Each structure stands twice: as structure tokens, then as C-alpha cells.
UniProtKB/TrEMBL annotation:
Pfam families: ATP-gua_Ptrans. The gene is mcsB. This is Protein-arginine kinase. It comes from the Bacteria. InterPro entries: Arg_Kinase, ATP-guanido_PTrfase, ATP-guanido_PTrfase_AS, ATP-guanido_PTrfase_cat, Gln_synth/guanido_kin_cat_dom. It comes from Bacillus aerolatus.
Length: 351
């Protein structure tokens, strides 16, 4: 395993598998925030303390799992941006963590961030709607680390974290979900407030502060205190099943009442992707969303969704510049993005 593999391979191995409801739910994620007792929070750590902590955490995790350690100080800004685009590290770890590091599995379904906002953030990813299974895997990793270190834990408050919103279970359960039907029928405007009232939050593709690209939303729990990990996950699964039902109904309604218009939209977007000479991130994401919908409905059969997953990552600014070997101006990125999409889709058609 090498740094080059994590940086140059666009699609993580786990993304090539299909999980339950993969036509709508792209991925499930479980993240646990933990801190070590007798150490200050990461923003107050000294370099020798951070180094000692990284060693302890790594030993605990690597005793049971094959994981590669990457330190933030050893990576360029561009390399860190690529890892953010692949959802392997957070923007905070990339930009604000003085002594940050990450432990990554070969398939990239396990990512353990060290000295981010908290000492430890264990993240596990799975395709489709597999929150319960992913929680089990994450808890097993948590147990392996806890066998080596002592966590900061209070009997009344639960796990202690740097941000009060994570105190308790320290759990963030989330799904990445594709909702073009609800967007086109404008039902999303009433569904998002309803989700918020239930203690869950809807964000963009890269979490807090990010915008929605290609009709892809991230839905996660807002509360970590007062409920067990299993209850939080159970509630989110229930909400996601309801959203899936609404999305399917919206797609059926569009196919039945506006079939020719929907088909036209899908193939116009496919035409843009296969013929454009310059395309911005937002337009590319929207066109990829339309084509994904076209595949799910049955309009398009000569393109696989795995190619769309690949293009979702490859067309991000960090990846484009990584392949170019250095920084690019915005227009240069847009030209390269269009060329990359054309070439990849042409290769798929020829195959």
C-alpha cells in the first residue's frame, strides 16, 4: 500500500460494490468521536504529546487491522484536498489540524482521523443503506483502540468531546442520498424542514457548510446525547426508508406524466457530458445526476453507475490538479474536466 494509491485511485474499492437501495442511497457512514483521558484537546496539544498520542492510537488500531498511517505534515495541500474529495479526511483535518494524521484501510472503507477536532474520529463507510452493519464494524474498531488507551468518559455525560454537540455517544450516523425526483418535483422543500424537526440535519455532499451538488444530500443525526447509538441509527434508518419511498414515488410520477420531458433532460445532459469542451464542477455534477437517474429509470443502458461514481471524484478540482501535476486556473480545470469526461464515457461506449 502506498500514498500514491490513495491519491491516484479515484474510486475507493468499497464503492464498486452495491448495497441495499443503491439506486438512491449511495453510501452509509458511521463516525465516532473519542478523546483520551489525561490529555488536552487537540487544539491545546504540544508536538511531543501529539506524537505520543498518535503512536498509542496507531498501535491500538493496527494490532487488529491492516491500516496505513499518513501524517498531514507529510502531505501537500493538493494531496490533502484529494483525500477530502474522497471523503477519507475532513476539511478541518486537512486545513486546521497542526499535528493531524489518518489511518486508512486498503479498501478505504476505514478511516481513523487523529488529532482533528477530537483525538480520534473513527469513520467506516459502506455502499447503500447499511447503517446497522457499519455501526457494528465501527464499534469493533472502537473496542480495539480502547483496549490500548483510556478514553475520556463521564458516567452521566458519556464520551467527552471538544464540541458540546458531540458529547454523549460521540456518534454521527449519515447517508449520502441521491434525490433528483424530489428536487424536480420540488417536494424537497417541505421534506427538509420535516427532517430537521425530528433531530436530523440535511447538508451538502461534503457535510457542514458545503453546497448540494448533483442532487446529492447528506443526512445525519444532530443529537448525540440522550439516545443510545442503536436508537440513533434505528431512527435514521426509519427516516431514510420514508425518503426512499417519496423519491421512488416522485420518479414514477415524472416518468408517467412527463416522460418525454424527463427523457429529453437525461439525454441532453448525456450529450453535454459526451461533447462539451469546457464544463464547470456544478454543471458536471448536475449532468451526472441526470444520467444516473436515466440509468435507474432505464433510459440509458450503455453506461454503468460505477463510471459515474468514478467521474464524481475525478472531476473535483483537487483530482484534476493532481493528474495535471500542479495547480490549474479555473478555466484550465474546466477544460480538463470536459476532456476527461468525454474520454471516459467514450471508452465505456467502446467497451
Amino acid at each position: 500500500m502506498s500514498l500514491e494509491r490513495f491519491i491516484n485511485q479515484a474510486v475507493s474499492s468499497w464503492m464498486n460494490n452495491e448495497g441495499p437501495h443503491s439506486d438512491i442511497v449511495l453510501s452509509s457512514r458511521i463516525r465516532l468521536a473519542r478523546n483520551l483521558a489525561d490529555y488536552q484537546f487537540p487544539s491545546f496539544l504540544k508536538s511531543d504529546e501529539a506524537e505520543e498520542m498518535t503512536k498509542k492510537i496507531s498501535e491500538g488500531a493496527q494490532r487488529e487491522y491492516a491500516l496505513e498511517l499518513l501524517t498531514m505534515e507529510s502531505l501537500s495541500q493538493l494531496q490533502k484536498r484529494v483525500l477530502v474529495e474522497k471523503h477519507l479526511i475532513s476539511p478541518y483535518l486537512a486545513d486546521a489540524s497542526a499535528y493531524g494524521a489518518v489511518l486508512l484501510s486498503e479498501t478505504e472503507d476505514i478511516s481513523i482521523m487523529i488529532n482533528e477536532e477530537d483525538h480520534i474520529r473513527i469513520q467506516c463507510l459502506s455502499p447503500g443503506l447499511q447503517l446497522k452493519e457499519t455501526l457494528e464494524k465501527t464499534n469493533a474498531i472502537d473496542d480495539a483502540i480502547e483496549a490500548k488507551v483510556k478514553y475520556a468518559f463521564d458516567e452521566q455525560r458519556g464520551y467527552l468531546t471538544s464540541c458540546p454537540t458531540n458529547v454523549g455517544t460521540g456518534l454521527r450516523a449519515s447517508v449520502m442520498i441521491h434525490l433528483p425526483g424530489l428536487m424536480l418535483t420540488q417536494q424537497i422543500n417541505r421534506i427538509i424542514p420535516a427532517i430537521s424537526q425530528l433531530g436530523f440535519v440535511v447538508r451538502g455532499i461534503y457535510g457542514e457548510g458545503s453546497e448540494v451538488l448533483g442532487n446529492i444530500f447528506q443526512i445525519s443525526n444532530q443529537l448525540t446525547l440522550g439516545k443510545s447509538e442503536a436508537d440513533i441509527v434505528e431512527d435514521l434508518v426509519s427516516i431514510v426508508h420514508q425518503i426512499i419511498a417519496h423519491e421512488k414515488s416522485a420518479r414514477e410520477a415524472l416518468a408517467n406524466t412527463s416522460s418525454i420531458h424527463l427523457e429529453d433532460k437525461v439525454f441532453r445532459s448525456y450529450g453535454v457530458l459526451t461533447n462539451s469542451r469546457i464544463i464547470e464542477t456544478k454543471e458536471a455534477a448536475q449532468c451526472l445526476s441526470d444520467v444516473r437517474l436515466g440509468i435507474d429509470i432505464g433510459y440509458i443502458s450503455n453506461v454503468s453507475k460505477s463510471i459515474l461514481n468514478e467521474l464524481m471524484i475525478l472531476t473535483q478540482p483537487g483530482f484534476l490538479q493532481q493528474y495535471a501535476g500542479g495547480p490549474l486556473r479555473p478555466e484550465e480545470r474546466d477544460i480538463r474536466r470536459a476532456a476527461l469526461i468525454r474520454e471516459r464515457l467514450k471508452l465505456e461506449e467502446n467497451c
